[in-house]
Amino acid sequence: MDGPMRVLVTGGSGLVGRAIERVVKEGEAREGEEWIFLSSKDANLMSPEETRSVFQKHRPTHVIHLAAMVGGLYKNMRQNLDFWRNNVFVNDNVLQTAHEFGVVKVVSCLSTCIFPDKTTYPIDETMIHNGPPHESNFGYAYAKRMIDVHNRSCFEKYGRRYTAVIPTNVFGPHDNFNIEDGHVLPGLIHKTYLAKKEGKPLQVWGSGRPLRQFIYSLDLARLFLWVLRDYDEVEPIILS
Q1: pTM of the model
Q2: 83: closest CA among 15, 133, 18?
Q3: Exposure b/e, 20-46, CB count within 10 A at least 16 = b
Q4: 201 φ, ψ to 5°?
Q5: How far, rounded to the nearest angstrom, does the alpha carbon of residue 1 sit from its chain's CA centroid?
Q6: For residues 188 and 204, is the Cβ–Cβ distance under 8 A?
Q7: Which of 3, 59, 138, 173 has the most crowded Cβ, counting Cβ within 10 A?
């Protein structure tokens, strides 16, 4: 677009939000871009009124939508209904309010867990809806999938080019190192630290057979900037 770009980042205090803020402040921002990083203290995005109020305050032209209820495997298994409801509310509020305020582009963040549990490899973007996700975190996975449904519907009805990215497993500064509720890499780092500190063997969960891919948060942040500025499709794109 021509003219100034005012980018609102929801979930700006999380792992990916902090990474985007860092690369922007360290020289990746372009002239004419203004960046606003929101945290949960600025607005409860489960509330339509608070979402509208924060859009009214900042009047963004672009949005990077990262805000979500997130957690590791065990938290998902315990709280599938909460993950479904909370994320559906947040996503609908952000995307609908963005449309109402004339936001040119929204880039939302999906998750690798949206892919079907029973699938073939390699996986690509066309396979998102080809079967149910893994039962352990189906609430979160379906809520994230619905962002893609919302984006496609918004394009069909209004011509909005709202899209989404699917990062592989992210790690980096400001990660959640909680062993019970965090993700795999920070959990392993924490366990390794404790094992070394206490002189005990390192115990790793699982069979060791699954293959995992990881992406460093600052690399992902730079890819987010490319998607925001240069990727014009509604189809989601895998970042790995």
Answers
A1: 0.91
A2: 133
A3: bbbbbeeeeeeeebebbbbeeebbebb
A4: -65, 150
A5: 24
A6: yes
A7: 138
Is there a cis peptide before residue 122, judged by omega within 30 degrees of 0?
Answer: yes
From the candidates 74, 121, 140, 162, give the one annotated as an active-site residue.
140
Strands (E), 47-136: 62-65, 105-109
Q: pLDDT tens digits, residue range 168-207?
A: 989 999 988 888 777 788 889 999 999 999 999 999 888 8
Examine the residue annotation and report whether 140 is marked as an active-site residue of this protein.
yes
238 class by beta-carbon count within 10 Å (0-12 exposed, 13-18 middle, 19+ buried) = middle
d(CA 61, CA 83): 29
Q: Specify the residue for token string 């963040």.
A: 109
CA neighbours within 13 Å on the CB side: how many for 105? 19
